[in-house]
Design goal:
The chain has 3 helices and no strands. The protein is mostly helical. The relative contact order is 0.11.
């Protein structure tokens, strides 16, 4: 089994199912914290899909895009936690 077949046959279906489950969790999350965590995991899973696409099609530019997306997701999570901290102090 080569790397390309492993990526196509095993990793991409697992990531696709996880994207579906995370999107469902994002839609029916009982509170805002669950929705933000689901969105953060959804972005992280999409970063994995972008990385696999970059490896399979030999496009290293997409790894830069994935890194920028990871930084944006991290800053969004930090901003949300800051918002929750300020909201709970009032």
């Amino acid at each position: 089994m080569t790397l390309h077949s492993y990526l196509y046959l095993i990793l991409l279906p697992i990531l696709a199912v996880s994207v579906l489950l995370l999107f469902i969790r994002f839609l029916i999350g009982p509170n805002i914290v669950d929705k933000v965590i689901a969105l953060d995991l959804l972005i992280t899973t999409c970063i994995g899909i972008i990385a696999i696409y970059s490896i399979v099609y030999n496009q290293p530019t997409f790894l830069d895009i994935a890194m920028i997306l990871a930084l944006i997701a991290f800053l969004g999570t930090v901003a949300f936690s800051y918002y929750l901290e300020k909201r709970n102090k009032k």
